[in-house]
Amino acid sequence: MRGFFSLLLAACLICGAPLLAQQKPEKKGITKEALEQRLKQLQTGRIQAVANLNAFDGAIQECQHWLDELNAAEAEKAKTSEAGKDKKGTNEKTAPAAASETKREK
Q: Model confidence over 20-39: pLDDT tens digits?
C-alpha cells in the first residue's frame, strides 16, 4: 500500500496536479459554487492520476513481458548450444567405436 501512495504522489508531481494540503479553500468567502468547482477540479485531478497510474502499470508490465521474452530466448539458446555440444561429443565417441567395429568385421 505504501508503494501505491508513493506512486500516486509521483504521478501528482509529474502531471502537476495539486496536492490536497496545498490548496485548501479559504475560510472567508466560501461559496457553494467555489466548493463545487473545487470538487470538480479534484475529481478531474483524480481521474488524471488514475490514468497516469494505469499508464505506469502498463509500462511496467510491458517491460516485464519483454524481459521474460529475452530470458526465455537466452535460456533456449543456452539449451540449444548445450544440446549441440552433447551431439558433437556423442559423435566423437561413436566414431572410434564405429571404426573398431569395422575392424572387427574385417
A: 556 665 567 789 999 999 99
Residues 56, 7 contacting (CB under 8 angstroms): yes
Residues 17 and 51: beta-carbon distance below 8 Å: no
Residue that is written with C-alpha cell 569395422 in the block:
102
SS (HEC) of 35-88: HHHHHHHHHHHHHHHHHHHHHHHHHHHHHHHHHHHHHHHHHHHHHHHHHHHHHH
Contact status, residue 38 vs residue 45, Cβ threshold 8 Å:
no
- CA–CA gap between residue 39 and residue 106 (Å, rounded): 99
- Answer yes or no: pTM beyond 0.70: no
Question: Do residues 15 and 50 touch, judged by C-beta distance below 8 A?
Answer: no
- At 43-59, the pLDDT tens digits run 999 999 999 999 999 99
